[in-house]
Structures are given as C-alpha cells and as structure tokens.
Amino acid sequence: MGLTFRLLGRVIDLTTLVAGLALVLMMTHIAIDVVAKYIFQVPMPGTITVVSNYYMILVAFLPLAFAERRNGQISVEVVTAALPMRTQRGLNVAGMVFCLLVFSALAWQGWIEAGRAQQVGSFEIEQNTKLLTWPARYLLPLGCGLIALTLVAKIWVALTRRPPQSLDEPFF
User: Fold this and answer.
1) Structural domain contains residue 44
2) How many C-beta atoms lie closer than 10 Å to residue 149's C-beta?
3) What pLDDT does residue 79 have?
4) With the CA atoms of 93, 94, 96 and 99 taken in that order, what torsion angle do they form, in degrees rounded to the nearest 10?
5) CB 134, CB 123: distance < 8 Å
6) Which residues pair with 125 in a beta bridge?
7) Using CA atoms, how far apart are residues 21 and 15, in angstroms rounded to an integer?
8) How far apart are CA 139 and CA 21, in angstroms?
9) Per residue in 39-95, pLDDT tens?
10) Is residue 167 situated within a structural domain?
11) Average pLDDT score over the chain
C-alpha cells in the first residue's frame, strides 16, 4: 500500500503543480490581452474562451485532491468537537464516504459529458477564431476522479490503520 500511496501522492503533487502553472499562465495571458487591447488596440482572440474553459477549470478542480490529502477543506466542528474522539472518527469516515459518492458521481457524469462533447467536436468562436473546448471537458472528471481516489485512500487508512491523533493531520 505504501507504493500506491506514494504514487497517488506524486500524481496529486503533479496535478497541483499543473494547476499552479495554469494560474500563472492565466494571469500572464490576461495581462498580455489587456496590454494588446488598450495599448495596441489589437485584443488577443480567444482569451475569454481559453480562460473560462481551460485555465479556470484547471485551477479550480485539479488541486481538490491536494487540499483533501492535507485535510485543507473547510470544516465546522461546533457540535462534533464535544463528542468523543471515536465518534468524531466515525463521523469523519461517514463524511468521507459521502464525499466519495458525490465526487465519483461527478467524475462519472463528467466523463460521459466530455465524451459527448468530443463526439460533436464542441468548440466556441471568439473574434472569428474557432477554439476547441471539448478537451477541457475532461479536466473536471480528472479532478473529481483524483479526489475520489484520495478519499478511497483516506478511508482505507482510517479503517485499517490507526489514523493520526488529530483529524487535522494528513492521513498519508
């Protein structure tokens, strides 16, 4: 299992790096577009399409697994903090199972929708430039699938090993 967790961790790190690079590229792309539009009066074609269909999806969905792996998701523990640790752990596992079901469903349906978009050759036209958008449709199921795998690993650790004392510490 150690090799599997290390491999999953590397994939998560890689996708998070890709998301970070996409963020930098998005800022650069927008800055160049603004300069081109207001100084040279020649906007870059496709900026809105590329930003909204590629960069934003990369930045929003690929780092989800990284945040989950590090227990960086938002949680409110007003009631559960007073419960015994065993109960807290049980509720934590139940929450992870629920999230696993949701993200698995999102990944599955996202994959189906991406396949449909690929079949029809989904694209957008911006400033007389045709830009394919169907490849970006695979980014959502990739991000959701990766967080689902992360949740499977966390559930496995929680059920088979002694998890960290604090629920805030990373599981792997």
Assistant:
1) yes
2) 20
3) 87
4) 180
5) yes
6) 130
7) 10
8) 15
9) 999 989 899 999 999 999 999 999 999 999 988 888 888 888 899 988 988 999 999
10) no
11) 91
With beta carbons less than 8 A apart as the criterion, state whether 163 and 88 touch.
no
Phi, psi angles (nearest 5°) of residue 127: 50, 50
Looking at residue 156, its amino acid is W
Amino acid at 117: A
Residue 161's alpha-carbon distances to 58, 146, 155, in angstroms, are 33, 22, 10
How far is Cα 167 from Cα 6, in angstroms, rounded to an integer? 21
Contact 16, 58 (CB under 8 A): no
Mean pLDDT along residues 150-165: 83
Domain of residue 121 covers 2-160
On the CB side of 167, CA atoms within 13 Å amount to 21
Number of domains in the chain: 1
Report, as an integer, the average pLDDT of 13-22.
97
Q: Which one-letter amino acid corresponds to residue 108?
A: W
Degrees to nearest 5, angle at CA 91 with 86 and 96 = 125
Predicted TM-score of the model (pTM): 0.88
